[in-house]
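Person: At home tonight, work slowly through the protein below, taking as long as you need, and write a paragraph about the fold.
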Amino acid sequence: MRAIGKLALAVLAMWALPLGAQETRVGEEGFESPPATLAQMDWLVGQWAGKGIGDAPAMESWLPPTGGTMVGTFVQESGEGGIQFTEHLYLMEEEGTLVLRLKHFNADLTGWEEKADMLTFRLVAIEDCAAYFHALTLRCDKGDDGEDGLVAAVRMQSGAELLFRFERMGDAVPDAPAPQCGEAASTAEMNQCYSSLLTRAADRRKQYVEAASALYADAPDVQAAIVEAEAAFDIYRDRECRANFRKFGNGSFRTTALLICALDMTDARTRTVWNNWLVPMADGEQPVLPEPGPTR
């Protein structure tokens, strides 16, 4: 099974760790995946940042589950501060277990895999705060300072590994209630409130995108363009909200700022999809779905 796309396999191999103690596991031929649910992966939700290939900055982000899917993005920066490549990831419940699927994109959004292809990683084992897929690992890691960390590892065809170590980008909550969530009794409840709103916003965005795609079932090139636009938005939103997060330094409001940013941008994206694809061009016809307002 391929662990890295063909176009960049030779390049990434230059940064692969030599054989030794392995973070990844490989299932035997014909192995069966163990029972598992997304509830066992709740520790993964959030923003993670650290060093990646060639010690250049890298970031991984995971949203709360939408239905039976957790959506994630990975951004590997270049040594000059630009984007080297990105990944769009789906962690999905399927047939009573979990499967991870992903696609790679260059900085110009050209894909590594063919248009209809993706990489699929089947679950080999699941433990507390760790998921071992065939040739790919995601697990918790406590740093020397006791802060939450994330280890992500991918095994190359050679058997060597690409290893990424991340730290959680803050788990603080706001000092004061924000207007959309009302008067919360505690900062923890405020954080939960915004997380819930973001989940609902993501669900609605998915509904509008699926409706737009269905309208162009006979135009696969248009459907593909919608998918590409969605992937581009995910990357842009994550980088914009990451910048907003950093603006607040170590202040307690930074996590709230990140959640509000993601919520507002998701709502704006849903409205863009509605305006571009679901509003009829002929006068007098009704939109396929109602005009979306702010998530409440």
